[in-house]
Design a protein that fits this description.
The chain has one domain: Pectate Lyase C-like, CATH 2.160.20.10. Helices cover about 5% and strands about 45% of the residues. The chain has four helices and 32 strands.
């Protein structure tokens, strides 16, 4: 885990700075391939001669959107060199498998270096085999679910690493930047855009996800920890940052499941989604030895994001050291009953031993209609007298436009929650309901 000072320096635009990119690449023996990514004159040829495999020049890919270029891409991957995808539209009809320890694929931009994925059955586009890889970099590509099949594809980039027996895999750094994942036409669509499983020090920057499948279990970015080992540095999905990404027309923008400690999400937009961000820190470990106690998922930071949603903007359970700051929430017309801008809950899991420790501050909440549907601004929900939500500060938030049923709702099983500088309004505007035990409201504005 990084210190708090380090975390602050990582948030925001500085994440994509050249210094941090160099850190991501530290220790990777990519030679001239890395030089190509940073614009070295020696790599301008983009060919094997310069240490880069060009899928057209070296592999013979056609790139006209009609010819099957699957074998050409697989040969490029098998070369072990960084793979360059020049401008074109490439048709791939089956999963591409990466078995090497380092992998780089890059194009000239997601609007001109395009891959249409057209498998006959539900499949991942890019899959990683074995114990995983040490470094992963994908930049400047467009990946679209395509074809006439009505089958929904699985995952566009399926980056999973595992913990096996007594051999822990020190998880690699992934760097994915300026990648657009969507669909070409009405069907099919991907079920998931990017799945990072067990990754540490990963960065997903300035990526867009369009019309990932809309049911609630479909996800733009899925971040998970390994489930067959106890929480620890070998099995966590730690210190992942998602910055400047855009999610449009899908079931869920980002899902974080398991011990994905230190995840930061900043400057992202979630537009017309059912859930913006779903976070579940419920213990799921099945391996040995089991952890004797578990605090839930810790250190999740959400900052400067926009949510335009129908059910939950941020939906978190069993999460501690949790912050939602400086974000804008718009609950759409047609919102589901029970919808909330921020929902933070705790379950009765016997392994959970920690308190929640959360901060929701400087957020703005809008509702886009004035129906009788029951909706919440901030909803804090404990599980029982022994599993309370506690130690939460709700500060300097603003509610605007149409009234919420409850602007801030604290259920009975909440303790040591303080509400300050937040306009709770009168009862007709959705004042705080049921302050629970030992909670404090410090003279909020009535408006």
């Amino acid at each position: 885990m990084q210190s708090n000072d380090d975390r602050k320096s990582d948030l925001g635009p500085s994440v994509g700075s050249p210094m941090n990119r160099r850190q991501v690449l530290t220790g990777v023996a990519l030679g001239a391939g890395v030089a190509a990514l940073v614009g070295s004159p020696a790599a301008k040829a983009h060919s094997v001669a310069s240490g880069v495999y060009n899928v057209k020049v070296d592999g013979g890919a056609i790139g006209n959107g009609v010819a099957d270029d699957t074998s050409k891409f697989q040969a490029a991957i098998n070369s072990g060199l960084p793979v360059y995808v020049p401008p074109g539209t490439y048709r791939v009809v089956s999963t591409l498998t990466v078995a090497s320890r380092s992998f780089v694929m890059y194009g000239d931009g997601p609007d001109i270096s395009m891959v249409y994925f057209e498998p006959s059955t539900a499949s991942n586009f890019l899959n990683f085999s074995g114990r995983g890889i040490d470094q992963l970099m994908i930049r400047n590509l467009g990946i679209s679910a395509s074809g006439s099949s009505t089958t929904f594809h699985d995952t566009a980039i399926n980056a999973q690493w595992s913990w096996t027996g007594l051999t822990h895999h020190t998880v690699p750094s992934a760097f994915i930047e300026n990648v657009v994942i969507g669909q070409n036409g009405t069907t099919p669509r991907f079920n998931c855009g990017i799945h990072l499983h067990g990754g540490q020090l990963c960065r997903i920057l300035n990526c867009s996800f369009f019309q990932i499948r809309e049911p609630r279990d479909a996800i733009g970015i899925l971040i998970t920890a390994t489930t067959d080992g106890p929480p620890g540095p070998e099995n966590n999905a730690c210190e992942t940052q998602v910055v400047g990404c855009y999610f449009l027309f899908q079931g869920m923008g980002i899902a974080i499941v398991g011990f994905a400690e230190g995840t930061r999400i900043a400057n992202c937009s979630f537009v017309s989604v059912i859930r913006g961000i779903w976070i579940d820190g419920t213990p799921v470990f099945s391996g040995s030895p089991q952890a004797p106690s578990y605090y839930g998922l810790g250190a999740i930071f959400i900052q400067d994001c926009h949510f335009d949603f129908f059910l939950f903007g941020v939906d978190a359970q069993n999460v501690w050291n949790f912050m939602v700051r400086g974000s804008h929430f718009l609950l759409e017309t047609g919102a589901v009953s029970g919808a909330a801008c921020i929902k933070h809950a705790r379950t009765n899991s016997p392994m959970l031993t920690g308190s929640e420790n959360a901060l929701y501050t400087n957020n703005i909440f809008y509702r886009n209609d004035n129906t009788s549907t029951v909706v919440f601004g901030i909803y804090v929900n404990g599980a029982s007298a022994d599993n309370r939500m506690k130690d939460i500060l709700i500060d300097a938030n603003r509610f605007c436009n149409q009234p919420f049923t409850h602007r801030v709702y604290l259920d009975t099983y909440t303790t040591r929650i303080r509400v300050t500088g937040t306009n709770l309004g009168n009862a007709g505007q959705g004042a705080t309901l049921d302050l629970g035990t030992a909670n404090v409201v410090d003279s909020p504005s009535p408006a």
